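Dissemination and training. As part of the outreach component of the grant, students in the summer workshop were shown how a complex can be specified as a set of sequence lines and then modelled as a single object. The example used during the hands-on session is reproduced here so that future cohorts can follow it. Participants entered these lines:
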Amino acid sequence: MFKEIISRLKQGYRTMEFPSSEIKLPHRFQGLPEVNPGAGMGGCAEYADVCPTGAIAAPEGKPVLDLGRCIFCGKCAKLYPRVFNFSREYKMAARKREDLFLRGEAFKRAATLDEAMKRLFGRSLKLRQVSAGGCGACEADCNVLQTLSFDLGRFGIQFTASPRHADGILITGPVTQNMKLALEKTYAAVPGPKIVIAAGACAISGGIYAGHPETAGIPAEIPVDLYIPGCPPHPLTILDGLLRLLGRIE
Amino acid sequence: MTELPRLSHLQAAGLDALAPLPPDDFYKAAAGRLKAGGRAVSYFGFPEEGRSAPLENGSAGTRLVMILAFDAERRLEVLSMSAGDSFRALTPDFPQLHLFEREIAEQTGLRCDGHPWLKPVRYPLKAGSPIPPGTADFFRVHGAEVHEVAVGPVHAGVIEPGHFRFQCHGEQVFHLEIALGYQHRGIERRLIGGPGQLTSHYLETLAGDTTIGHASAYCRAVESLSGTPVPARGEFLRALMLELERLANHTGDLGALAGDVAYLPTASFCGRLRGDFLNMSALICGNRFGRGMIIPGGTAFDLDHALIKELRLRLDAAFGDVENAADLLWGSSSVMERFEGTGIVSRETALALGLTGPAARASGVRRDVRRDFPAGAYLNLKAPLPEDAPESGDVRARAYTRWLEIKHSYELINGLLDSLPSGPVFAEPGAMKPESFTVSLEEGWRGEICHTAITDKAGKFRSYKIKDPSFNNWQGLAMALRGAQISDFPLCNKSFNLSYCGHDL
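and obtained this result:
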């Protein structure tokens, strides 16, 4: 017992303050991209070709970056630094799919749930995580929120073992054909009213697996309440998104 | 006996090295070499010239390739045959081939004769045979008071999907069968005709926690086929990233093992420390999993003096804390009571199944790609495996092996930083040679990664075969549960911590 107490003193108090202005991400971290449509150089077809996941389009000659498809590889910014730039901003969750299309305007961060839902879940939200394809990195960054560094529990948010105990599901992965049924059953098993969160480029758009016949995507009958972009999203991006949804951060 | 062509690790060879033997000679040679202690590193099929891609064909014209390793002699061999519409299973004599042969049957449509348990591996989409995963017959035990427990694909934790079917008598597990395939997203098929825009991203996400391991194996394959010499500094940085990946995952596993026996101090400390190691990767390349760092020709980022200084500071602090957390674990008798004698995999079983990585080493099978088939910075590294390694094959051995490897990786990283060569980190890779093939091995944190690349006339991938260490090791977990209590499953599972997505591809 004494050894454990001495260890605790040695290891120190390690839970980060959140939200906090002190949080500094590494210099090479690629966060929320910024699009500068004014810097376009005529025909924008080449922007679109640069992106491995087809996240960039150029309707009417103006570049548009789909944050839901972006895997933050930084290739566009390397080739067209005047048009695309990756900031170190980690706050980038959104409530609507269309809010993820970046056109150079201020990013619309996730808004709070409506009053009735906020009253139900604002101080206690239990989520069942459903891993449906993908590479396991999104799951790893959800798991890390449960460590003492982030201490998700202090915000009243927890991952549950059963969908029966959950207020909603958090989906990761492109939803493979082989996981579609399990996802539908898990969603059905959650008592309503319920929340659905899509975390990571795969869950939002199929990510790098978009268009594979082996993947199905989130079925239309499962409406998504919160989109958390990233490949994978940084744990802070997930935490920020969850707290905004619950109205704990404005 | 036919003399088998010898193969050099990472030396591109012409396709004549894959000249097919007559089938009977192939089976005889394969059996002879496996009996002589050979280990199947990879065994796969690809379509003969002019045939359509695997899965879309379903019959004649498949070339089978078996890559064999003799670890102690540091020797690789290859043998090949051309299959008409079927091939003969060698699994009854050599269990290590069981999943390879099932995979060949599934991917090529060849009939596999004599396989004792021929089931789908990943339940891929196939016109005309839409089998949902987990629904094929399971091996069943019958009798009074025998019951079956089904778990998954959605598990209790935040974890990937898989299905586990236990045959139990009370608490005791007679048999565990593991059905995977839920994460199958069709990566191997998309690599054919590449490299393309997505290729490196597919390779980095075969298993998200093994980004560096798989990206390194891929880059070495491309470099060997294109004859690209990677600058020494680039090689050192790659080794550094690989060892950081090992540190992060092994530390996380020690914590998770502690958590599974409700020993919270080590669980809590290691959960944080794993993140600290991931953040070191982010310090180097911006991404916690090392995405974008390893590229054909070298690395995408370099370290300057300030970064090296910062890295050393963080590394020393984190290692000191891991040491402290691990000391607590080994010193706790209640933890040892749960770890010792739980989930034993004997040396014979480990050898018969061809286990790799820490799971094999913990059962006394001392294979390690870094020592047996070294490449890059490992060629000159003094990296002897720890001598006092446990061999008992239980949860404690698998946990303690991880701790020894944490210490080892920490020393390796310090050595790499001490002797970091100057110069560039990247050399532009040239075009890949046409009609060639190469075998690329890497010791990922879970064990041996094997990528086998074959190019077509245009120097593009005609076939790209991936083997994640989990492919070898899942059966090890099933065997660890034989005779164990079902309540020990989470602990045994964590002691292997295998990848679902790396297996399912």
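Chain B has two domains: 6-113, 187-504. Students were then asked to discuss how this feature might be tested experimentally.
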